[in-house]
Amino acid sequence: MEIDKKPGIYEELGVPRVINAMGTYTIYGGSKMSRQTIQDMNDAASSFVDLNLLQKRAGEAIARLTKNEAAYICNGAAAGIYLGLLAAVALHRGKKIRYLARQDFHDSEIVVFRSHRSPYDIILDQLGVSIVELAYSNHTLVSPKEDIEAVISERTAAIYFLESGWVAPGAPSLELTASVAKKHQLPVILDAAAMLPPADNLWNFTKAGASLAVFSGGKDLCGPQASGLIVGRKDLIDLLLESAFPKHGYGRFLKVGKEEIAGLYSALCQYLSADMGSRIQDAEDQVESACRLLNDHPYYLAARSYPNEAGQPIPRVLVKIRNAQTDEQQVLNYLSALTPPVIAAAAGKQSFYLNPMTLTKAEMEWICHQLLKFPFVQH
Ligand SMILES: *Cc1c(COP(=O)(O)O)cnc(C)c1O
User: Fold this and answer.
1) Which member of 103, 108, 262, 270 lies 3.0 to 4.6 Å from 44 by CB, making a disulfide possible if both were Cys?
2) Closest Cα partner for 19 from 375, 308, 286?
3) Is pLDDT above 80 for 169?
4) pLDDT band at 62 (very low <50, low <70, confident <90, very high)
5) How far is the CA of 168 from the centre of ligand 1 (A)?
């Protein structure tokens, strides 16, 4: 495979460029922006502009494009969940965000299903709102409506809901949760950070009853890494427009620049007009070609795995190692010691994944050819 040897900013800093076979993981740079997005950010960076107006207009445009009442660009999905809760507390306490005091947060609760807990949800704790957990990590509720209602009180400000491949089967549906929330006039804040594709999710979750749905701008949307998108109810988003960044007070530290706002808007426009079918076909082709190449080797057994870890409708390759002396960590270490280094995810039990989502066809084939050269011990 041709490696771009042109020295650039990463070379100057001594940080190797990697081939990412893991997927849209922030820790390896999430996703790559298109030329168009980079060009639009470049344009945005070259002028001064009224940031309040830019935030408002970009939100209005995105709301129209995504068939939502309103939209707000923030600096990541994690930030979006924090801001969503901030707006929910303001609504609950009947105050504008800037008038909220510490006591208002201490007097508020958010309901969270134990099966929806994730390494990201510590954000819910940061305003001082109490988390009220419900049900079990891997268990269906006995009587879902009644069980949710049992933890709702006058202190409840919102219900948090996670859409992800991680959620245990049998957890209550968004529709059911939203119907209970509606009855009690509570907003549902939905973490859908990695739930793209399909692009329809940009409006399907709010249609299904989420008051606010939050997406990462830096994953499959291919927007700026430090961007996120909140879509949904206008009353809640108006509270943010009135008080969150670039205003002072709560949320001021969640800074989103003109470049990110322009970049996310640009990336979103491209995402909505992209040919998702051909993109998924490309992933299928990569998986098929990887399986063909690797299955010629006596020590590999490669198969299509679907959907991927985030529940996205994109296949991956699950590679099993059939050599008793070799475990997946040895193979992953070998891949990460290549030039350029290849980052792939372990799948346990002598196996690992190759994810086409962040690879080109040429990269996937190169990885497979390198795997064929792994120095197996004969047995
Ligand atoms: C990636 C992710 C986040 C965080 O998204 P950022 O845009 O990086 O802040 C939150 N929740 C879930 C489920 C995620 O997958």
Assistant:
1) 262
2) 286
3) no
4) very high
5) 18
Low-confidence winner among 132-146, 266-280, 364-378 (lowest mean pLDDT): 132-146
d(CA 146, CA 164): 24
Largest distance between two CA atoms of the chain: 71
Q: Domain ends where: 273, 303, 326?
A: 273
- Please tell me which residue, 2 or 264, carries the higher pLDDT value: 264
Residue 314: give its domain's CATH number.
3.90.1150.180
Q: Please list the residues that pair with 228 across neighbouring strands.
A: 74, 216
Q: Tell how far the Cα of 78 is from the centroid of ligand 1, in angstroms.
A: 6
Residue among 113, 191, 201, 221 to mutate when testing ligand 1 (max atoms within 8 A of CB): 191
Is it the case that residue 214 has pLDDT exceeding 80?
A: yes
Bridge partners of 176, per DSSP, are none
Q: What does the pLDDT read at residue 5?
A: 62
Joined tokens for residue 377 = 């011990």
In-domain check, residue 286: yes
How far, in Å, is the centroid of ligand 1 from the Cα of 327?
A: 30
**pLDDT exceeding 90 applies to what percent of the chain?**
86
Ligand 1 pocket: which residues have CB below 6 Å? 26, 76-78, 118, 120, 164, 191, 193-194, 216, 218, 228
Residues 261, 317 share a domain: no
Q: Beta strands of 51-94 (E only): which ranges?
A: 70-74
- pTM here is 0.95
Would you state the torsion angle of the CA atoms of residues 290, 291, 292, 298, taken in this order, to the nearest 10 degrees?
Answer: 110
Q: 373 C-alpha to center of ligand 1: Å?
A: 36
Answer whether residue 172 shows pLDDT above 90.
no
79-to-48, 58, 70, 247, 252 alpha-carbon distances in Å: 25, 18, 17, 16, 11
Q: Domain count of the chain?
A: 2
